[in-house]
Amino acid sequence: MSTKKLQGKVALITGASKGLGKAMALALAEAGARLALVSRNLEQLNQTADAVRKLGADTAVFQADVTSEEQVLRLEKTVTKEFGRLQILINNAGMNLRKPVTDFSLDEWRQVMDTNLTSVFLMSRAFVGAVWRRLIPIVLGLVPGIVVGALLLSRLNGEWLKLFVYATLVPLILLQAAGLRRPIRLTPTVGAPFGMGLGVLYSLTTISGPPLALLFNNQGLVKQEFRAALGMIRVAESTLTAIAYYHLGLFTAPSLHLLVWIAPTVALGVPVGVVLIRNVDAEVFRRVCMSFDAWIVGFGLSKVLVSVGLAVAPGAYVVLAVVAIIDTALLTAFFGRRRGARGSSGAGASQRVPAGGPSR
User: Fold this and answer.
1) Residue 312 lies in a domain
2) 214 pLDDT more than 50
3) Same domain assignment for residues 34 and 108
4) Of the spans 82-86, 132-136, 147-151, 351-355, which averages the highest pLDDT?
5) Within a domain: residue 1?
6) What is the pLDDT of residues 252-310, one digit of tens each?
7) How far apart are CA 130 and CA 57, in angstroms?
8) Is the residue at 354 inside a domain?
């Protein structure tokens, strides 16, 4: 297992041709990041790229003026096509005129402000906002998927549908728990079909966590982006499904009475969850939630095998036992890897050279 903290992450650095930009590019390369290097000076930029490649990092150079809105928008499309989703954006491009500000001409003032401030706005707007645009195809795909799923639920045998869904979910959850990380480009051609399938799944079972986690974990989203993306999809799918259920007459008086009990617990659970996610390591929290999903779906699969007559209790619960054994082994391996990584980083820290470092 690689000990590089940024292995596979995509970083973009403006002003990467020299100085701090070049130094940060080398540091990120040593940490395992894939680098998009941006500058107006192509010759110096290529020199930085050569130094980065000697460290074994994947890199590409992009000549652009980051004070130009047109060039920044073109840069976002080119970098996204080359590297996929960006995880690290370093707005390093900057300049200064070494004379009193009272001696600046208006054009000089605008040049300094555009390079130091406007470029940050343009780059951040272009790259940070990209996550929302990528969710639109999923949300649009949810609509027909939820309609189809709700119609199936109202007309077909619900137990056989549950059997199919649970049998599909169990391997998805276990693959996720095993650390499956295959890069998936969230393009419209992927997002729309995924949204449709997600809509069918959610309207049939109100479960969508495992496939959503598999997709978003493979986008390399940072913690806040992950939560925002997940929250947006959750709101869309739950709202659309409630509307479909209402028009199909699937709400019953007993189910509505359950709201009296469910609503207060949700109101209590949300702030508790916020506290947990802020104070518990995100990866540990995510992995424990996966175990919860695996056991719940394993139990549901065992139960539905009995209800459709494919197995009898207690033999049907062998499925739950197998899921529990596999998940426990994966969970043990997960915490073992974390302990090993902490031990390696601690050993590396004890061998660091004094301030100033080695010459290169």
Assistant:
1) yes
2) yes
3) yes
4) 147-151
5) no
6) 777 777 777 887 887 788 788 777 767 777 677 778 878 888 898 899 899 999 999 99
7) 25
8) no
In this structure, is residue 4 part of a structural domain?
A: no
pLDDT 10s digits, 72-111: 999 998 998 888 778 889 999 988 888 888 888 999 999 9
The pLDDT value given to residue 281: 74
Q: Which of 207, 63, 196 is nearest to 140 (CA)?
A: 196
Q: Give the position of tokens 């209790």.
A: 313
Q: How many domains does the chain have?
A: 2
User: Domain range holding 88?
Assistant: 10-128
User: Which CATH number is 42's domain given?
Assistant: 3.40.50.720
Q: For residues 73 and 49, is the Cβ–Cβ distance under 8 A? A: no
